[in-house]
Amino acid sequence: MVNDKKTSYNLDELSVLVLDFSYNEAFKNLACEECEDFIKIFSIISLDSITSSEELRLLFYHLTNHPTPVREAVALKLEEIYDDKYFSPYIKEQFLKAIVDINPNVCRAICNLISKSIFLQKQLISDVINKINSLLIEINNNDEELGGFYCDALKIRKNHAKNKKLFSLYWYLEVLSICLDEENNSKALEIVKQTIKFNDYTIREKTAKILAKIDNPPIELLKFAKSDQNFYVKNQVYDKISMI
After folding, report:
1. Sign of the torsion formed by the C-alpha atoms of 47, 48, 54 and 57
2. Which candidate, 40, 120, 200, 221, has a CA 20 to 30 Å from the CA of 88?
3. Whole-number Å distance between alpha carbons of 60 and 21
4. What is the CA angle 217-137-209, rounded to 5?
5. What is the largest CA-CA distance in the chain?
């Protein structure tokens, strides 16, 4: 038995240990609230399948409100073994939280998973659009106080509250670019009309990525993205140049 009392680990540190659990042992460890985090991480790593909605729910339970190494291990494992047939409203809520996890590795893994599942894309797109619109309302209401999100802002300041909103907006826009379908083109268009004007080029880049997927996008928006000073923004609409 491992008696290490350390409570904070990263995946590089854990890689020097070798622990392997059977299928039943792994889920028994995950169900135990007193089980140490590094045991749970190796339990997650040991899994190669999911056979019930209860098991998937237990994995998703560890995807939020747990230490970073645990959340990251779950996100990476879900890329491998997630199964749409066990989807539920609880799973949806956990997805929406994990999309904007403070650890970009978790966000990236969840986005990769969503990109592989048309089912998930259809389940999440409306909620993601609502999340973006709510964020934009908050941003517009606090633009002056937080230091200017838009290109025409008089004051551009950096602070934690502003960065947190930009981080969440970035990842929700990424998921929108993954999930976007014809049915939601008009809603996406209303979003990009605002976000294409952001100071932060990463927001404009994700915006241009969405714009490139919208059927028959407005020429003026394409021109705006095409004339952006940032290469990564312009590159997203490169194949649309012939339309202008």
Report:
1. positive
2. 40
3. 19
4. 30
5. 67
pLDDT digits (tens, 9 = 90+) for 150-169: 655 545 566 777 789 999 99
**SS3 labels along the chain:** CCCCCCCCCCHHHHCCCCCCCCHHHHHHHHHCCCCCHHHHHHHHHHCCCCCCHHHHHHHHHCCCCCCHHHHHHHHHHHHHHCCHHHCCHHHHHHHHHHCCCCCHHHHHHHHHHHHCCHHHHHHHHHHHHHHHHHHHHHHHHHHHHHCCCECCCCCCCCCHHHHHHHHHHHHHHHHHHHHCCHHHHHHHHHHHHHHCCECCHHHHHHHHHHHHHCCCCCHHHHHHHHCCCCHHHHHHCHHHHHHC
Residues constituting the chain = 244
Nearest to 37 by CA among 59, 15, 69, 13: 69
- What tens digit of pLDDT does each residue of 28-82 get? 999 988 889 989 999 999 999 999 999 999 999 999 999 999 999 999 999 999 9
Q: Which of 105, 222, 207, 75 is nearest to 150 (CA)?
A: 207
Token readout for 44 is: 């997650």
For the entire predicted model, the pTM comes to: 0.85
